[in-house]
Design goal:
Length: 138
């Protein structure tokens, strides 16, 4: 019985080492997109930062620690402490995203294909924040 568990652990460890570069790359991409999401309407910051944290947890404790100590760490700590985001914060995030998408596409973006991309990204961001990101526990 112990031998089987040992083999499973070795296979699991080998599998985890194989995926480590993938998790690191995905974590870096998610962290970059999360940072950009602070400034770009329609790109949700919190889910991307949480994805980056999960990827770094699976692959690199050093990178996870750096993420937690960065300015993005407040999103992760807030999410961990509350188990999600509050309804008030959810509504304010969705309203801010919708407002910024509207302002951007009405006043600043003149090309129709780019407008459509921003509207679609904004809709996806609102759906993710509204229905995918867990609600905070009281």
């Amino acid at each position: 019985m112990e031998l089987h568990a040992l083999n499973f652990d070795n296979n699991s460890l080998k599998h985890q080492k194989t995926l480590k570069p993938f998790y690191i790359a995905l974590g870096i991409l998610a962290a970059l997109l999360g940072t950009i999401g602070i400034f770009v309407p329609g790109l949700p910051t919190t889910p991307l930062v949480l994805l980056a944290s999960w990827c770094f947890y699976r692959s690199s404790p050093c990178l996870q620690e750096r993420l937690l100590n960065s300015f993005l760490g407040k999103y992760i700590r807030d999410y961990q402490n509350k188990g999600g985001i509050t309804t008030r914060k959810r509504i304010s995030i969705i309203l801010l995203m919708a407002t910024m998408v509207a302002i951007s596409t009405i006043f600043f973006i003149k090309t129709l294909p780019i407008r459509i991309i921003v509207w679609v990204a904004g809709a996806i961001g609102c759906i993710v924040v509204g229905f995918v990101v867990p609600k905070a526990k009281k």
